[in-house]
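Reminder to self: tokens first, then the designed residues, so the page reads top to bottom the way the pipeline ran.
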């Protein structure tokens, strides 16, 4: 692994971060976004960087951007069907419902499980968590 190096910029502005990714050719390309972010441009940038670094979300080589694109499609679908969450209690109930649906799959015998259904439920859980954070205006700082 190489020594830590800086990445100039990032998808959220022009900050630098200490990187220990192991890439001896760091720093990585500058990811500056001086104009409003376009989702497709960000996904394209993430896909390129993910492929360049060989980063994948799982052992079957599904890239992180692929999972995010599926989350985006689920978000569009969910927002057409359901209004924004108004409270922690409401969001908790929806997250719990999605988690229970995944739990039903987990409880099945291995040969009866459908991996696509399990993945779909996980995407719904992730989208619900993201919507909760956005709808309730939860900030990290």
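Designed residues (141 positions):
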């Amino acid at each position: 692994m190489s020594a830590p190096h800086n990445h100039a910029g990032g998808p959220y502005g022009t900050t630098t971060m200490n990187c220990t990714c192991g890439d001896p050719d760091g720093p990585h390309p500058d990811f500056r976004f001086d104009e409003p972010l376009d989702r497709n441009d960000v996904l394209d940038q993430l896909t390129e960087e993910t492929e360049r670094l060989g980063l994948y979300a799982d052992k079957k080589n599904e890239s992180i951007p692929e999972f995010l694109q599926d989350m985006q499609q689920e978000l569009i679908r969910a927002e057409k069907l359901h209004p924004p969450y108004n409270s922690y209690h409401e969001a908790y109930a929806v997250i719990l419902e999605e988690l229970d649906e995944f739990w039903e799959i987990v409880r099945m015998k291995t040969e009866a499980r459908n991996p696509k259904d399990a993945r779909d439920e996980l995407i719904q859980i992730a989208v619900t968590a993201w919507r909760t954070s956005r709808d309730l205006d939860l900030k990290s700082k």
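Residues 1-20, 27-34 have pLDDT under 50 and may be disordered.
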